[in-house]
Specification:
Blueprint lengths: L3 E12 L2 E12 L3 E5 L6 H8 L7 E6 L2 E3 L4 H6 L2 E4 L11 H6 L13 H14 L15 H14 L4 E5 L7 H16 L3 E6 L2 H7 L2 E6 L2 E7 L8 H8 L18 E10 L6 E6 L3 E5 L3 H11 L5 E8 L2 E3 L6 H5 L1 E5 L13 H6 L15 H15 L15 H14 L4 E5 L7 H15 L4 E5 L3 H7 L2 E4 L2
Parallel strand pairs: 3-8, 3-9, 6-7, 7-8, 13-18, 13-19, 16-17, 17-18
Antiparallel strand pairs: 1-2, 1-4, 4-5, 9-10, 11-12, 11-14, 14-15
Helix pairs in contact: 5-6, 13-14
Length: 474
């Protein structure tokens, strides 16, 4: 009889009173790769986070073998041999690969100070045994994204993991990098480590999985085993996966009777957008769901005046407008803040205060604004608590701020500049749960001032914790 690595029964969890996981059940056996697949936002990542101790479920029962265990946090999961690899890398960028192998080990101790030479030798052995060409002394910050994921898998091997949970790490990687990751997942199995793979793309799952578990509506809908004669029954799996979930049925949480600030009616572009229709009210938070980041980027381009409309109508405050090739910030109060542009919108050579006072960075990078003292005192009074910066710190360099504080600074700078609508483009990418919670909090604070936000929803939490209504780009 096959040995159970972990069995999960009666897993239930809700977010903002919305049931995400409903009596979910899953068993992973020894030396097995299980792919948990389903549409984005069906709760796959949440299952992995609960098993890895990163999130506490409302209700769940765990078994290791025949023993009932409680997974109360990630340290408990590590002690049980459960490792989690997600898009938020758990490696310390400034340390070498060897130091990362021996820091935060399952017993909670850092072994790197015991014998660094011995640690380097051991790390090199693990890397060479698994076909990697890295040196134990390589600094993690110099590695590519795919290599960082591979190093985390190698670390799991070094720490004798029994289960590695891999949560949708392929996004944004080249085909070559994706294939390298898939090959190394097979290495985990060769080392007798089971894998639970959360995956939205069933084709990648087919490439490595021994068993496919289809998840839908927070439940385990169906399971399929790999058959030596014909592989997986791809037609049946694709049929189940392509049945539509009506995200638009999620009710608005507030602002249903508010005046429409922005409305798109059957808008199309010459590129990817066709027949887009949604509306945005004052104080609204609209979560956009899109399986293709390029489609969302085209929507951002449309709303920021960079893409021409080939059909349909756009309305602002009930009036028809043409956004293309206009200064939408000045004319209509539409501002865009994106993950890739946050540092570009801030000037590292200036203080936090001077960065706040700059309305158009590219044109004024070397200009220090001189404003009346009473105006600066007003900024201290009005925005110190909102941005979370003490008055004495405003004169410090912008490098002093964390990512979430930089984002908050940009939001309130836009507010002070007359913004009515903020478009957030991939701001959550690479951020851990702790930072996300901070961002959720001040997004809500911002919309309480009758400003509106459009953003790309990337996780279940993004939908049910912060979005007031949802639109899915197809």
């Amino acid at each position: 009889m096959r040995r159970e690595i972990i069995r999960v029964d009666n897993l239930c969890h809700s977010i903002s009173k919305k049931q995400i996981l409903n009596n979910f059940k899953l068993c992973v056996y020894d030396n097995e790769i299980v792919a948990l697949i389903g549409e984005r936002f069906c709760g796959k990542s949440l299952v992995g986070q609960v098993i890895a101790g990163l999130t506490q479920a409302d209700e769940a029962t765990f078994y290791i073998g025949s023993e009932n265990v409680k997974i109360k946090d990630c340290h408990t999961a590590l002690c049980l041999g459960i490792h989690h690899i997600g898009t938020d890398t758990k490696l310390i960028e400034e340390l070498s690969i060897a130091d990362n192998f021996f820091v935060l080990t399952p017993d909670g101790n850092s072994k790197q100070a015991i014998n660094r030479k011995k640690n380097n030798l051991f790390t090199n052995e693990v890397l060479q045994e698994t076909g990697l060409t890295f040196s134990s002394k390589d600094i993690v910050s110099g590695l590519s994204t795919a290599d960082k994921y591979i190093v985390q898998m190698a670390k799991a091997i070094a720490n004798k993991a029994c289960l590695v949970i891999i949560d949708d790490i392929f996004g944004g990687l080249s085909t070559e990098s994706q294939n390298r990751l898939l090959d190394y997942i097979k290495v985990l199995k060769q080392k007798n480590i089971s894998v639970l793979l959360m995956e939205s793309d069933f084709k990648r799952a087919f490439a490595v999985a021994d068993r496919i578990v289809i998840m839908k509506y927070g439940e385990n809908m169906r399971e399929y085993y790999w058959n030596a004669d014909g592989g997986f029954d791809t037609d049946k799996i694709q049929h189940i996966l392509t049945e539509n979930i009506n995200y638009e049925s999620i009710p608005k949480k507030s602002g249903e009777n508010a005046d429409k600030l922005l409305e798109l009616k059957a808008v199309s572009t010459a590129g990817r957008l066709a027949g887009i229709s949604f509306d945005l009210s004052e104080g609204d938070i609209l979560g956009i769901i899109s399986d293709d980041s390029n489609t969302y980027s085209e929507l951002v381009g449309l709303l920021t005046g960079k893409k021409n409309v080939s059909g349909g109508m756009t309305y602002l405050n009930g009036q028809p407008v043409l956004l293309y090739n206009t200064d939408v910030q000045k004319e209509y109060g539409i501002y865009c803040i994106g993950n890739e542009s946050i540092d570009d919108l801030l000037c590292e050579n200036l203080s936090i205060l001077d960065n706040f006072l700059l309305s158009v960075i590219p044109a004024r990078k070397n200009v220090k604004l001189m404003l009346p003292t009473n105006y600066i005192d007003f900024i201290y009074y009005e925005f110190t608590d909102k941005i979370g910066i003490h008055k004495k710190d405003w004169k410090k360099s912008i490098r002093f701020l964390r990512y979430d504080q930089k984002l908050r600074l940009l939001l309130y700078r836009a507010l002070a500049s007359g913004a009515k609508i903020i478009i957030l483009d991939r701001i959550f990418s690479g951020q851990d749960l702790f930072v996300r919670q901070y961002i959720y909090k001040f997004m809500k604070e911002y919309t309480s001032l009758n400003r509106s936000i459009i953003f790309k929803a990337e996780t279940t939490d993004d939908i049910y914790n912060i979005s007031r209504h949802i639109y899915r780009l197809k």
